[in-house]
Amino acid sequence: VSSLSGVSSATPTEEMNGAGNLMDFLDEPFPDVGTYEDFHTIDWLREKSRDTDHVTIRNKPTCYHSKESIWELIKSLLDAWSGWVVMLLIGLLSGTLAGVIDLAVDWMTDLKEGVCLSAFWYSHEQCCWTSNETTFDDRDKCPQWQKWAELMTGHAEGAGAYVLNYFLYILWALLFSFLAVSLVRVFAPYACGSGIPEIKTILSGFIIRGYLGKWTLLIKTVTLVLAVSSGLSLGKEGPLVHVACCCGNLFCSLFSKYSKNEGKRREVLSAAAAAGVSVAFGAPIGGVLFSLEEVSYYFPLKTLWRSFFAALVAAFTLRSINPFGNSRLVLFYVEYHTPWYMAELVPFILLGVFGGLWGTLFIRANIAWCRRRKTTQLGKYPVLEVIAITGITAVLAYPNPYTRRSTSELISELFNDCGALESSQLCDYINNPNMSRPVDDIPDRPAGPGVYNALWQLALALVFKIVITIFTFGMKIPSGLFIPSMAVGAIAGRIVGIAVEQMAYHHHDWIIFKNWCRPGADCVTPGLYAMVGAAACLGGVTRMTVSLVVIMFELTGGLEYIVPLMAAAVTSKWVADAFGKEGIYESHIQLNGYPYLDVRDEFTHRTLATDVMRPRRNDPPLAVLTQDTTTVEDVETLIKDTDYNGFPVVVSRESERLIGFVQRRDLTLAIKNARQKQDGVVSSSVVYFTEDAPQLPASNPQPLKLRRILNLSPFTVTDHTPMETVVDIFRKLGLRQCLVTRSGRLLGIITKKDVLRHMAQMMNQDPESIMFN
Amino acid sequence: VSSLSGVSSATPTEEMNGAGNLMDFLDEPFPDVGTYEDFHTIDWLREKSRDTDHVTIRNKPTCYHSKESIWELIKSLLDAWSGWVVMLLIGLLSGTLAGVIDLAVDWMTDLKEGVCLSAFWYSHEQCCWTSNETTFDDRDKCPQWQKWAELMTGHAEGAGAYVLNYFLYILWALLFSFLAVSLVRVFAPYACGSGIPEIKTILSGFIIRGYLGKWTLLIKTVTLVLAVSSGLSLGKEGPLVHVACCCGNLFCSLFSKYSKNEGKRREVLSAAAAAGVSVAFGAPIGGVLFSLEEVSYYFPLKTLWRSFFAALVAAFTLRSINPFGNSRLVLFYVEYHTPWYMAELVPFILLGVFGGLWGTLFIRANIAWCRRRKTTQLGKYPVLEVIAITGITAVLAYPNPYTRRSTSELISELFNDCGALESSQLCDYINNPNMSRPVDDIPDRPAGPGVYNALWQLALALVFKIVITIFTFGMKIPSGLFIPSMAVGAIAGRIVGIAVEQMAYHHHDWIIFKNWCRPGADCVTPGLYAMVGAAACLGGVTRMTVSLVVIMFELTGGLEYIVPLMAAAVTSKWVADAFGKEGIYESHIQLNGYPYLDVRDEFTHRTLATDVMRPRRNDPPLAVLTQDTTTVEDVETLIKDTDYNGFPVVVSRESERLIGFVQRRDLTLAIKNARQKQDGVVSSSVVYFTEDAPQLPASNPQPLKLRRILNLSPFTVTDHTPMETVVDIFRKLGLRQCLVTRSGRLLGIITKKDVLRHMAQMMNQDPESIMFN
């Protein structure tokens, strides 16, 4: 028997095979066994035990020679700390990238309007900050900063200058978006979109090679700057999560512990997603909860601690870069000075309803448009589409001051309470001449003409944003929808806020206002309404609740406003859920047909495993291998004739008693290897999976032992197991497939695809829509 | 066949059994089938599918008669909303209880020292607040509040008055603690301790009847007040979690959806734990994370949302009761005015090391003492023990002002920064006469004699707290250790803080201080050191990280100080973990021998299922039932002779092919029921688990069909499955037992106890220490 050198493998279940392993010694381990092909699903249980394997090898006792032992010690320490090191690196790199992106976007957004004469690489704000001639009242105006028309013609005002500025604004926007879409198309097609649907799918155990690669990282970073600067209605928050995950993937490759284990790699990616949100909003705790609530699939406690660490490092790296120039961590820093009143819950809940309706409308319309893009001619001209949408956006956005500026600036202004020194149009209230109070606590005042003017412009901006965002999200450029969604909500909220404020001022004798709003008091904070509206709209689109509220809480820093935010977020979720359970990310996952098993879908149907397993009643029997009677040729025929990813191995076709499961990929590799390297292996050689070679006549060719690639612990359920339990097992253990038995006999197989197809069927969806690319 | 009326049951797997069920119609469902006995472990998968059952029954189409349909609609709405209703009720009740406890503790703590003449139910602070004669400088002194000596003898000062006050202080303390321990012993023995170890065990799926009952709730609330007021070194935070969980259990009984399903009930309890921490610290987000990180076992996203809701409601209920009189949600509200400097990380990390060492010392010493209490005569005199410890505590605590007051007041003072108006001894700095700065930003000053005096007293208090807490935690009264741990850390931190501050003041030319501390600047905030120390010590004892940092963050409200807190918490965890993996709660779980399968323990040994399963090599064969040849008598003998909780059912003893699993409890009940109600069932009747009755000679007595209680989908693994995978499956699916097969033949069984015993063995612990009461 010792002449039959077996085929080596790294499959862990095999290594545990204790006795008898010395017999089938290895030529060399062939490298790819136990890995996955592109667009395949990983087996979490297998990955987990591969890691243990690794740990056990790492911890094996070493001989204590002086030098080596120190080296070993350093190596083992590095290995033990590698998780934290990776987190540190992710935090540093994603914080730095976020800072660079922020600075670049600032500069390029302003470049559309003008240039700084003292140094062309200064943005408008930096330009005027460095200028000494600026007075505090008019920070935005300084001689160093010149609009294009002024620079080119010398005239700052007038219709001619306006038209020239308008024209150049559109030209720059077109240039930026053309560059963005071209770069994406040529270098990294995976860099488009927000990336969150794909990351969710990857984290749930799917393999998409290159999606988190170096090229994607580079191109996504560059094109994100271009896309945001072009003035399109999109944000950088979602793509930042993708960028952070790319960083995570990059650093995984430094440590074999992470690069070789798809399960461990996903733990790092979960933490990276937290770091991404952390830098996007300056909200580390919110980022961790976002990763937990929205993105991750498998989130053990260890990952919780590490994500928190990564998120903190990222946030502090960003703060030390200080791109907003205000030493603040957060994108929209606000401070409110007045509490809210119980009666205000009514408008807050109405904003929640609005958010839910907007979420539903957006998801339905966007998915319909994306489906049209996928199925019609439209999808063939992505560059043209981007150019056209950019053109329309620029043409419509420029005349309205609220859409001309960058969306995050708009949100920031809408969130802010009107202080005494505020010069914006939104704060054009008629001042009480007798006012002699401190700056913080200005009583409610009647609105001046500027406010009414602003209301009209905001209403137009609202309609514009709603329509254009539907067409923008899903184009072939990096695009997030946090910021556009928040903008829609913030505009609606601010409008409602001003309306309530003016009502309270003019009708403070009405019964509803009487109790909480005396004349001369500061009762209503329109900025808070904007914030609540933003939370509601974001919640309607993404269906986040806790992480959303925590992110908003980290923006304001006061527990005071959690109740309004919570009320709006929960209302919005309920309203939106009434029209359809899926958030925008799940809808896009479905649209793209990724095999994603959502942890949130409840499966409450009473089907049994036997209803789902294949083969079905009239199908041909299950393709199985027998433990010691199949020949190499039989195996090769089976592989050629079927496209299954693996085959159960049974004792014999008569008894149908299961002994194990073998992966197609491993089988192909093993036979190829054996044919090349092992003498005597021919087509008529018997393949056997038992410990000992079968008793064969002497005339037969040498048999081939394949026990090493056999998984001896395949997962089985009985045919009477309720599908609910099966779905639960698939979710919690992250299985790829599961065998179905009855009284010890193999009946069939259920794969993840079968489960997904069955779930779709039960929810009256077309099961064929799950295409899996 | 129709004369054989079968035995009814509510087991869901049975209901799914489609065809052939009409035959064995039911007399009446006997009530206890599918429930668990006390001190048994639940089967999560089974509970989950029971819930689906419930949903399916609830959703079945109803006939639309006018009145009924409205009633049905209301019922189904109530059912759908019952989760949120339960959360609302939990939040309201636990918030109210927490408020009442706070108020009562305040009053009774002060009662030890004196009484308010204007109204005896006022605490010292309330008494002086309502008095008009108080000046701002001396809030604590007012004529209405009289110490006992003053009231009884008329002399407020002098040695006689001191001795009388001292004596009465001890007397009150003894009275309170005697009442507490007697109430616990007589009415609710489960009300003692912090309750968190038991709640962790219950949430992991163990049944302890009465642990969360109404009596426990009532007695724990009352005795908690008494215990805290008696001045013992214990806190109310842990017990508040227990109280909140009792509330949760109470409200579960209102809805059959929760009261009848042990799995759903645990989801509610997880949320209740979050509400408990939320009111304990005024930190709703921290509470949710505490429940997630520290307490819960199964924490789906739905529970995350609901816990958050419950935690918020609880926090706001508490705030509207306003027990601290400052409209603040939080127990220790602090505001710091100066940032921290990079060099301060060194003392912060040292505090982390101290916290880790304290955690290790505390856990080891406390467990050793508790073990001694369990095993020696000591445990037989719990009342005496409590009285003795109270006496010692009171005698030693009174002379030192820092131990005389309540521990939370002490922590509050230690956390606070010294403002200009602060009158405490700790703030007795030598003022710079030229100082004309605003109140907020006082530069570092040299310490006055009061500070040095305070340092000595604090050092004595530190030693006292360290020693007495070890003996206090684990006595038969409600006792939490958050507050004592935090006190130890806060004292240590404040001492270090003052030392660094004075060093920086006197040696600001040293190289380490040169860069960040110019003379006349406010460089060091000793209060921040106290907070960091408190976090470190709490982290060392409980091994929390993220939730700890978030709780502390909610206390200060600024992201600014997250890095120091994080550094200290992580250092403390690492140091403590180096000496032993278990936190105090896990250690107490082990000490009490609860069957708790920790999600955090990594199992990395290479054993296989076959090494763990029973029967072992020389054991008698596995006790099994056959599908159609066992008689009623055989079954009864088997039940009598063994104490297994369930029996596998096989086709026949020869083939050993598994068809299902039957619970001992169900089997006993079914046979008892059949003997009583079904004619013809005698000892020699054959019991069968197949669809159809076996072919028997006509002379045989009527067979008994038991298919309804048979679980047709028992969980199986092969004998080659690595134990690591088995442990993972037990954890993630919450199994009670798992059958082991090889090529379809039943080999043995692995129960949760076997898994725990094996894990203990692998970690070189005595497996017999897992006693399971």
UniProtKB/TrEMBL annotation, chains A, B:
Record CDD domains: CBS_pair_voltage-gated_CLC_euk_bac, ClC_3_like
Subcellular localization, as worded in the UniProt entry: Endosome membrane; Membrane
Signal peptide: none
Membrane topology note: Multi-pass membrane protein
Pfam entry (one): Voltage_CLC
Superkingdom to which the source organism belongs: Eukaryota
UniProt keywords, alphabetically: Antiport, ATP-binding, CBS domain, Chloride, Endosome, Ion transport, Membrane, Nucleotide-binding, Repeat, Transmembrane, Transmembrane helix, Transport
GO molecular function: antiporter activity; ATP binding; voltage-gated chloride channel activity
Gene3D superfamilies: 3.90.1280.20, Clc chloride channel (1.10.3080.10)
Family: Belongs to the chloride channel (TC 2.A.49) family.
Name this polypeptide is given: Chloride channel protein
Lineage of origin: Eukaryota, Metazoa, Chordata, Craniata, Vertebrata
